[in-house]
Amino acid sequence: MADTDLREAVRQRYGAAAQRVSGGQNNGCCGAAPIQGGCDPITSNLYDAEQLAGMPEAAGRASLGCGNPTALADLRPGEVVLDLGSGGGLDVLLSARRVGPGGKAYGLDMTDEMLALARENQSRAGVANAEFLKGHIEEIPLPDASVDVIVSNCVVNLAADKDQVLREAFRVLRPGGRLAISDVVSRGAAPVAIRRSLELWVGCIAGALEESDYRAKLAAAGFAAITIEPTRVYRVADAREFLAGQGWDVDAIAAQVDGLFFSAFIRASKPAMPQGA
Fold first, then answer.
1. CATH no. for residue 146?
2. Is residue 44 part of a domain?
3. Domain annotation covers residue 274
């Protein structure tokens, strides 16, 4: 799939997801139609009641992520935070609350419907120190060295050019700035047909990077102190019903499927001084 086709497919899927939420419906994983038995292991139980207190219900319903980066990230009062692929705005609003009135949280999204929903959620939540920007995560519309922390929730894996996304993230971070994102990662190889079926189950169009590839791409972009911490490993039992519906003999492929994909919290930092200085 060409980059432009992939981007349009993501835009259409997330635009439809926003419309469902605005109409009072719940979402399936990653903006797809709900799949019985297939979504809950990925998108459910990511936020606790204390975090969601004071947040509009629609913000929670629009959350299509695979983790909870704002709970794991070390956000400090007065910092500037950027959420890549901010969707309905939940992680932006939670970040804004964490950094306080002296800080700011930006959300970046390319989908008009999601931006409209996020701004509505911001108004309902009464959060003044947040701003939602339209744009692509491969071309962040912010100046160099203007952000302290970048968060993202299961979005980098949707990008066709992940190297460019990570280069842009590095560019807008201040020296000493931190990357703290949730994403789907793979561990080990699997036959292409099985992998494609599992990617459909996960609901993420572009596919997950293999763990070592993720580390290499972060390092190539200039990041240091890279860690990838699994937060939820997807077992064969989680995907059994979906894979069987795709025509697979699940027991026959279980050893190749079990634990292949996992949600991870990925941390990295921009060196405080240029490397070699």
1. 3.40.50.150
2. yes
3. no
Rounded alpha-carbon distances, angstroms, from residue 29 to 36, 151, 161, 277:
11, 19, 22, 45
275 falls within a domain: no
**What's the number of domains the chain is made of?**
1
Give the domain extent around 157: 3-187+207-233+262-269
pLDDT classification of 166: cutoffs 50, 70, 90: very high
Residue 201 in any domain: the answer is: no
- For the cut 90, the answer to whether the pLDDT of residue 98 exceeds it is yes
pLDDT, average across residues 163-188: 94
pTM of the predicted structure, to 2 decimals: 0.80
204: left (phi over 0), alpha (psi -120 to 50) or beta: beta
pLDDT digit string, tens, across residues 196-211? 766 666 555 447 789 9
Residue scoring higher pLDDT (71 or 183): 183
